[in-house]
Amino acid sequence: MSFHQKPTMYVSSVHLHVMDIKRSLTFYQEVLGLKVLKELDKMVHFTADGTNTLLVIEQPEGVNPKQGRTTGLYHFAILLPERSDLATFIKHIVPLGVELGASDHQVSEAIYFSDPDGNGIEVYRDREPAEWNWDNDQVEMTVDPLDAEDLLAAAKNEEWNGIPEDTVMGHIHLHVAHLPEVEEFYTKGLGFEVVTRYGNQAIFISDAKYHHHIALNTWNGVGAPTPASNSVGLKHYTITLPNEPQRNEVIERLKQIGAKIEEENGHYFTQDPSDNRIKLEI
Fold first, then answer.
1. Is Oxidoreductase one of the keywords UniProt gives this record (predicted)?
2. Residues in the chain with pLDDT values less than 70
């Protein structure tokens, strides 16, 4: 998956707040099939390959339930290596009674659901890039019905044995307050390109001509407020950059457009104009 490894700039992990760490630990192991990499008192790191963190869940002190109509997480998206992996995952999750949505986006096939706290999750597989349709610099994406029968045929007789080792964080989709400001932040500051526009309500952005590493929308309302720092939802997500010189360049560009940069124990953080916090790693 060259769109999710260096030298491409990509979303590598997501850190969430949850209400009940034990309940969420069970969900992410048994429903999503992630493996525990590290477990602390109120925090768990999950992995697919046994080495790299894909997802972190944390129960903060005085945690509040997920707030509606705010900025923050719409969903994070787990990208499976093969179509057969998505088919076997569907065979696994349907009997569990999880409420599902599904779409064929032309560039990908996806299912959607939420964790016990309402944090949105997408699990998907990509079609080959040669099958994606581009109109100049804009990739064509749709919200067509998923052909579940055809997809499930790809499972053959395989059984679900948890998330495959080659699984990655495919993208993240965020609620924002104002699109023009966040577009400037993500393009002029971070260096992503807009690859799809949905009127004045959403933009999809990427590096290296992926269909999207990040999506941004105002569907919770223009001017939507920032959720409380201890509420369920996104704490931060991580963007991995190719090397230290490029990270330094990104930090300088962000400073030039007025974005705040914080250093914590050798790690660099910033936040977009809608207060979605981002860790900048190499």
1. yes
2. 1
Predicted confidence at residue 231, as pLDDT, reads 98
**Cα 240 from chain centroid?**
13
Instruction: Quickly list DSSP for 77-99.
Output: EEEPSSHHHHHHHHHHHGGGT--
- pLDDT reported for residue 157: 80
Per DSSP, 233 falls in state E
Contact 282, 8 (CB under 8 A): no
Asked if residues 66 and 232 have their Cβ atoms less than 8 Å apart, the reply is yes
Among the four given CATH numbers 3.10.180.10, 4.10.320.10, 3.40.50.720, 3.40.30.10, the one describing domain 2-281 = 3.10.180.10
76 close to 167: Cβ distance less than 8 angstroms: no
Instruction: At 94, list the tokens.
Output: 């349907």
Q: Who's near 209: CB < 8 A, 6+ residues apart?
A: 129, 139, 193, 195
**Considering only CA atoms, which of 163, 173, 210, 170 is closest in space to residue 79?**
170
What distance in Å separates the CA atoms of residue 233 and residue 64, rounded to the nearest whole number?
10
Q: 253-271 as b/e, with b when 16 or more CB fall inside 10 Å? A: ebeeeebeeeeeeeebebb
pLDDT at residue number 51: 98
Q: What does the pLDDT look like over 198-244, one tens digit per residue?
A: 999 999 999 999 999 999 999 999 999 999 999 999 999 999 999 99
Domain ranges of the chain: 2-281
Which residue type does 165 have?
Answer: E
- Percent helix, percent strand, percent coil in the chain, to nearest 5: 20, 35, 45
